[in-house]
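Meet the record:
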Amino acid sequence: MRLIKIVMLWLVLAGLTPAPLRAQTDAPGAAASAAGAESAEAGLPTKAPTVFNIGPFPVTNSMLVTWIVAAGVILFARRATRRMKEVPEGAQNFWEFLVESLHSFLEEIVGAELIKKSFWFFATIFIFIFFTNWFGLLPGVGTIGWGHPAANGFEVTRPWLRGGNADLNMTFAMASIFMLVWFVWALQSNGIAGFALHIFGPKGDSQGALKYFMILIFFLVGFIEVISIAFRPISLSFRLFGNIFAGENLLDAMSRAVQHPAWAKAVASVVLPIPFYLLELLVGFVQAIVFMLLTAVFTAVICAHDDDQPAKAHD
């Protein structure tokens, strides 16, 4: 149930992202008039086009992919755990291997206590990003949709599907939700006073006049730390978005590298992208690991305590 809740919250926030990050809706008449401009733009556009509307709510092709992936992951998880066996096999075996591997990996980073309340979030991040990245590499994603006839054949200008993490709305939504739960976990582990002391308090053991000098230094450093924390959603979202967006543009460029003659174009569009396609499979996995790992490290740094220093009581 936690998996379902967090995925649906991401999807809702991705659809409600403010104007600077929102994909603009094309009116039916404007789509035809903008076809020439869209075809002139090389590669994947930064703004995900609208596929259809649910009342006043525009649904972009990247949102549609995230819905499909979320539904697929939820249904697969339900099927794998519907009839649990003592000796797992099939889907249950795969799901248990995935969950147990993630749990062991994350426990070494955040600790045995913190993993109990944070594992659901980090595991969901990895699973959702991983399957979304690989779904965006399926044939037909980005190549089937509305378009117009062009000199080299039919050109798709508004594909029905687009990689979910190639849309900055989605990555920013995930990063924003992480910062929200990070703040809650930080207050639960340190209390208000402990949270402020963790950021502005002096580190190490100094004596005499040096102690007061270090207090001043670390207090000033605390303001830099606050700025760093504020920019974490931006860095997390742009890192994931930039890698996936660049990868999809690379595959598109390789498929268009040869234009003439027609037979050479057909062969090149299949053969040239293959090594880069395999590379993007690796990148999709690595970026899911990196996003999960960074969020886990950020959490461990603010929440982890030494064994001889119990967590402070909540304020």
About this structure: Residues 2-303 form one domain. The longest helix spans residues 209-255.
